[in-house]
Structures are given as structure tokens and as C-alpha cells.
Write a structure and sequence with these properties.
The complex is a heterodimer of chains A (about 80) and B (about 475). By secondary structure, chain A is mainly α. Chain A has helices spanning about 5-15, 30-35, 40-55, 70-80. Chain A contains four helices and no strands. The chains are: A mainly alpha (about 80), B alpha/beta (about 475).
Chain lengths: ~80, ~475
């Protein structure tokens, strides 16, 4: 499993409890448009990812762009960690 | 000088693991200690103003605590209930400047000696006779001074509110030096009821003690919930009194499920108000599940806010039972001024019923909107009722104020997973109420000398605790 795959797995695990039960989560689910992820959820998700992945967040992480989908978020995290 | 009621000598005063003590026995042992205290007063030249003398009373042994407490009150000397494991003697000595320490000299806890301290003179006459240790608003311990008459009156009001006369005995399960336990002890004494101390008592013995159907129990909400583990399915207390922490609706439902026929009373109080302040009767409890209650007789309550009735603001109390002030260390005493005492709690008042929102310093802003920890803690009770936990605002380097949840590990129950907690919260409240950080504490929640959660330690050292995933 690549680093990206590992990160995608963690990202989906962390995001899942924040989305409505009737929304099916996959790597490309539109998190803000279709899964009701708001800015406050984003903070909680980032804080959890910070802990699980052992990274330190920066102000630049707090953009809606990264939160379009799990795939985009996992990508940005993988690039940062590399 | 007021002291505890005279009781029939043959009455049982205290029941502990495998032993029980009659009032006569307690008074005989207390008289021996009184004699030691009287001799000590002569030695330290305080015989003319005995209330200026003050002794530390350790609470490790419930028997010695009860005897020591009675002896101090009867001898007219001040008493400082001391949880040895919670505050060092050095710190306590700096805080209240006691004249001596009451030491237990035998295993049952009925023999005593005194260790006298060479303390600098205080520059004021000691008000009150009982000094209870509290955390203080800054997290630094304070000694709250209370008069014996205040303590007794408050305990009697609580006993009347729950109709303690209908109980055969009254049980507790906490360290005797805590304000709540001391209130329970005085209440049981005044109503001539045996105090049943469950600490270290095996479950089968507890079950037997409650089997008469007339035994009441007082404790914190989590203790009330856990009584179902201690008692058999057919055994129920006839009354339960919740105090100390806020009894949230979900916890109340849990207790009701375990004990459908038990009368439940919810109390809200502060050490500074001699113990109990407001209560919700068994009759009203399920109608006002979220309420803190109506004031006990002798207390007035108001909300310090500019709005009309129903507005939210700081809760203030007025009563003769308010403390005279605090010992703050280095021989200093801070007197309470004015008729109205600010509790530091936030709430609202409607038709005489007080509802508690949280502590004034527990309101945080998340996403530009106010969030109070009481709301979060209440919502968590359904999923965390088997655990000790608290929510505090912590400062994250990037996000600023965040609600953080601290959960104590518990050998009997696993902590629910992070995603279960988030999901449970998501179903109940909007996003800003979901704790941003969730920590698990292997050693339990840190406590102050008075048994309350050490919030300052949690808020300043939160990063050292492991996160829950």
C-alpha cells in the first residue's frame, strides 16, 4: 500500500463520522456540496488527522480547496509529508 | 456555641466494612481526643480564644474522621478536613496556618495523638470553625471558612428536602474530607441516622445493607449510576441524592432505569454556601430534567443580567449560610463582602426554577459563536455515562479556542471509539459543539484537594495526554 493509499484510508476513516448516514463516502464524494462538511467540521477533521498522521498543521491547510474530496485531501497531505 | 444534636447513645453512628460504631462509642473516643485538644490549647496559649486554634483532620479512615470531627466541634476548635493524597501538608500549612495535626494511632481509627506546629501568628481572628479546601477560581486552593451553625443548618435543610426521616440509614461512597461527604455526615447525624460508608465495602455487604428497602444513598451522578453495579437487581435504595456534579438528563434516565422505585433528588450547591443551595424534588425532577432546582429555604437567588426573567447571566445567592471568606495563603484572609454572593455559574431563572448553563469561565467561542461546556457534557452523557469526563476550552496554536474532551479510562468499561463519540454528538448538536480534541487519561482525571477536577492542569497540560482515536 502506497503512502497515498494509507493517507486516503485514514482521511476516509476520519471524515466518515461527520457526514450524514445516508451519504455514501468514497474517494471522490464532494464533501462540502454533498456531504455537509462545514468549516467547523474541517477544523475537527484536521485536528484528528494531525494526531493520527503525526503532522503539524499550518494556516495554509485551512482551505476549502483541500476539502473538495477525500482524494484531494489525501493528495495534499501526502505531498506535505513527502 | 452550636454543636451537633444529642442523639440516643445506643443509636448507630457509623457503619464501615465489618464494623459499626454506636453514638456512645463515637462520643467516648471523641472525649479522649477533646481532652488532648484541651491540653494542647493550654500549651499553645489559646485557651482563652479556642476558636483561634485550628487542627488538621486527615480523612483516610471514616471512623477516625467522624470521631475527630465531633471532638473538634465539641472542643470548640477549628477543623480542617484533609485529604492527604490530594494536598501536601506543607501547602495546607501555608494556606490555613493550622496549630496542629490530629494523628491516628491505631488500626480501627479510634486512638489519637496530636502533633503541634510552631506557626507564625495570624493577624486576624479565625472566623467560622470548619475550613473546607476548594480549588478557587484560579485553580489555586483556598480554604473556605464555615461556621458550625451554617454547616448544620444547611445539612438540616437538605435532610428536610429529601425527608430523610423516612430512611433507616444513609450511605455515601466518597472520601469524608470532601464537602459533600461532610455535609452527608452532618445530615445523617442531625437526623439520627446511621452513616453507612461504602468505601472498601464488598458488593455483597452493600447489597445486604440496602436490603431493608429504607436505605438512602448520596453521591455524585456517576456514583448514582454505578450503584447498579454494586446492588443486586432486586435491591434498591429508597432515596438517592445527587450532588457535586450536574445530573444530566441522560444520566437521570439511566438511574431511573436501574432503580425505578427510588426517589431521586438533585442538588446544586457550593462549599461557599455551606453545601447545598438549590434542589429539584423527586416529584418535579422528570418535569424539569435540565434544571438545577429551586433554592432551599433561607436562600434567595437572582440572575445578574439586564434582561427580564428568563435571561441568562451569573447566578447570585443571598443567605446567612454564605461563607465569611477564604484563607488564601501566607496568613492572609479574604473576606466576602456584600449581601449577594456570585457563584461563578451561569444560568437562568424562570418561575423560581434555576437552570444551570455552565461556569462563567466555561463559555468559549467556536466559529464565532458561543459554546458552553455544560451543553457538550450533557449531550455526552448518553454515550459516556459509565465514564468520568469533562469538557474544557483549550488553546490550539492554530485554531485558537477549541472544546476538548477528557475521558478517564475505566477498568470495567472501554471508552467508546472516537468516531462513535463524534457520531453521537453530530446527531444531537450542531458542529461547533463537537469536541475538537478528545483525550483519554489512563490515570483518571487530575483532582484538586477538594476532589474537584483540576481544570487548570488539564487546560495547560492537555498536549501531554494521549488522543482517543
Amino acid at each position: 500500500m502506497s503512502e497515498y493509499d494509507k493517507h486516503l484510508h485514514v482521511v476516509m476513516d476520519v471524515i466518515r463520522p461527520f457526514i450524514p448516514e445516508d451519504v455514501v463516502l468514497d474517494a471522490d464524494t464532494l464533501l462540502i456540496e454533498n456531504a455537509q462538511i462545514d468549516s467547523l467540521n474541517m477544523i475537527n477533521i484536521l485536528l484528528e488527522l494531525e494526531s493520527r498522521l503525526g503532522i503539524q498543521l499550518k494556516a495554509s491547510d485551512l482551505t476549502f480547496d483541500h476539502f473538495q474530496s477525500c482524494r484531494l485531501l489525501a493528495n495534499s497531505l501526502t505531498q506535505r509529508i513527502d | 456555641m452550636q454543636t451537633l444534636n444529642s442523639r440516643p447513645e445506643e443509636s448507630t453512628a457509623l457503619i464501615v466494612d465489618r464494623s459499626q460504631y454506636t453514638v456512645a462509642e463515637v462520643l467516648v473516643f471523641a472525649k479522649r481526643l477533646q481532652d488532648l485538644l484541651s491540653d494542647a490549647l493550654v500549651k499553645i496559649k489559646k485557651e482563652t480564644r479556642p476558636l483561634d486554634a485550628c487542627f488538621v483532620l486527615p480523612s483516610l479512615n471514616p471512623v477516625s474522621y467522624m470521631i475527630g470531627f465531633v471532638a473538634c466541634l465539641n472542643a470548640g476548635v477549628g477543623v480542617i478536613p484533609w485529604r492527604e493524597q490530594a494536598i501536601s501538608l506543607d501547602r495546607l500549612m501555608n494556606l490555613v496556618r493550622p496549630d496542629g495535626l490530629i494523628k491516628i494511632t491505631d488500626a480501627p481509627g479510634t486512638g489519637f495523638s496530636l502533633e503541634l506546629f510552631d506557626q507564625p501568628e495570624l493577624e486576624f481572628s479565625r472566623p467560622g470553625q470548619v475550613v473546607m479546601l476548594t480549588s478557587g477560581s484560579t485553580g489555586q486552593p483556598k480554604g473556605v471558612t464555615l461556621g458550625v451553625a451554617q454547616l448544620i443548618r444547611n445539612a438540616e435543610l437538605a435532610g428536610s428536602a429529601i425527608n430523610l426521616s423516612a430512611c433507616s440509614k444513609w450511605a455515601i461512597d466518597i472520601d469524608m474530607a470532601l464537602m459533600s461527604a461532610t455535609s452527608h455526615m452532618v445530615m445523617a447525624w442531625q437526623y439520627d441516622k446511621p452513616l453507612l460508608h461504602l468505601l472498601d465495602m464488598p458488593n455483597d455487604s452493600s447489597d445486604r445493607e440496602f436490603s431493608d428497602g429504607c436505605t438512602g444513598f448520596g453521591g455524585s451522578p456517576i456514583q448514582l449510576v454505578r450503584m447498579s453495579e454494586r446492588l443486586g437487581a432486586k435491591t434498591q435504595p429508597n432515596k438517592m441524592m445527587s450532588s457535586g456534579d450536574f445530573l444530566a438528563p441522560a444520566m437521570l434516565d439511566q438511574i431511573r432505569t436501574s432503580f425505578p422505585n427510588t426517589e431521586i433528588y438533585k442538588f446544586y450547591g457550593l462549599t461557599e454556601l455551606s453545601g447545598r443551595f438549590c434542589f429539584v424534588s423527586n416529584q418535579e425532577l422528570f418535569k424539569y430534567k435540565s434544571a438545577a432546582g429551586r433554592p432551599l429555604p433561607g436562600f434567595e437567588v437572582r440572575i445578574a443580567c439586564e434582561n427580564e426573567e428568563g435571561g441568562i447571566g451569573e447566578i447570585e445567592a443571598k443567605s446567612d449560610l454564605i461563607t465569611a471568606g477564604y484563607y488564601v495563603g501566607d496568613g492572609q484572609f479574604q473576606a466576602i463582602e456584600g449581601d449577594w454572593f456570585s457563584t461563578g455559574d451561569i444560568g437562568s431563572l424562570e418561575n423560581g426554577m434555576l437552570t444551570l448553563i455552565g461556569r462563567s469561565d466555561d463559555v468559549m467561542k467556536v466559529g464565532g459563536e458561543k459554546v458552553d461546556r455544560q451543553t457538550i457534557e450533557s449531550a455526552l452523557t448518553e454515550i459516556l455515562y459509565q465514564h468520568e469526563y469533562c469538557v474544557l476550552s483549550v488553546q490550539h496554536s492554530l485554531f485558537g479556542q477549541c472544546p476538548a474532551l477528557f475521558i478517564a479510562e475505566n477498568s470495567a468499561y472501554n471508552i467508546p471509539a472516537w468516531d462513535e463519540i463524534v457520531q453521537a454528538m453530530k446527531k444531537k448538536l450542531s458542529s461547533r459543539f463537537i469536541p475538537s480534541l478528545i483525550f483519554r487519561l489512563e490515570e483518571g482525571l487530575p483532582r484538586l484537594a477538594n476532589g474537584k477536577i483540576d481544570r487548570v492542569k488539564l487546560k495547560t497540560e492537555f498536549q501531554q495526554y494521549p488522543r482517543l482515536h
